[in-house]
Amino acid sequence: MDESGGSARLFEQQLTPAERAAIDSVPKGLFLGGRWRDTPTTLPVLDPATGQTLCAVADASPADGLDGLTAAAAAQADWARTPPRTRSDILMRAHRALLADTERLALIMTLEMGKPLAEARGEIAYAAEFFRWFAEEAVRLDGGYLPAPAGGSRFLVTEQPVGPSLLITPWNFPMAMGARKIAPALAAGCTCVVKPAEQTPLSMLALAAVLAESGVPDGVVNVVTTADPGALMTPLIADSRSRKLSFTGSTAVGKLLLEQCARTVMRTSMELGGNAPLLVFDDADLDEAVEGALAAKMRNIGQACTAANRILVQRGVAETFAERLAARMAALPMGRGTEPDVVVGPLIDADAVAKVERLVADARRRGARVLLGGEAIAGPGTFYPATVLTGVDDEAELCHTEIFGPVAAIATFDTEDEAVARANDTPYGLVAYVFTENLRRGLRVCEALETGMVGLNQGVVSNPAAPFGGVKESGLGREGGFTGIDEFLETKYIGVKV
Ligand code: NAP
Question: Which residue segment(s) compose the domain that 408 sits in?
Answer without folding.
Answer: 276-464
